[in-house]
Design a protein that fits this description.
It is built from five helices and nine strands; from the N terminus they run ββαβαββαββββαα. By secondary structure, it is of the alpha/beta class. β8 and β9 form a beta hairpin.
Amino acid sequence: MSIMLELLPSAGPALVVGGGAVAARKVQNLVEGGFAVTVIAPEIAPEIRAHPTVTLVESSFQPSDLPTDAPYALVFACTSDRETNRLVGELARRARIPALIAGDQSESTFFTPATHRDGDLTVAVSTAGASPTLARDIRDRVAEALGGGWAEKVAAAREERAARIAMRKDAES
């Protein structure tokens, strides 16, 4: 069974195996979602290094990096090596940890949508893993059509809602 995942704050530790461009996008989303991220890769992109809270393990992935009692809430296999990605997916499934395997949706147990954020407004597009490139293209078109300024509108809506709730509570008292 596959699920689409919207990243939530304080969701737990996540493992990203790989240090390139795809891994960098996943790390960015995980960090924004409040995950404690560990990256394992022999070479790690500067965009990943820029996150001070990310734990970096500069080595090739080893099966012992993902034991059956691994503490991870999510696992991402984002290397350019198909066999490594397959192994990471197999070990994650054995440990009953949801895994996203780049390049092979059939091995993934969840998918992350392409997201656009403007403050607390989040718009997400998913193709259920069929085409991340298409999802990103659609996301970019939606973001362009929306334009900016939504962070302020969402903040104002939050304040208005809080005021309505407070008025309702006062009326019930």
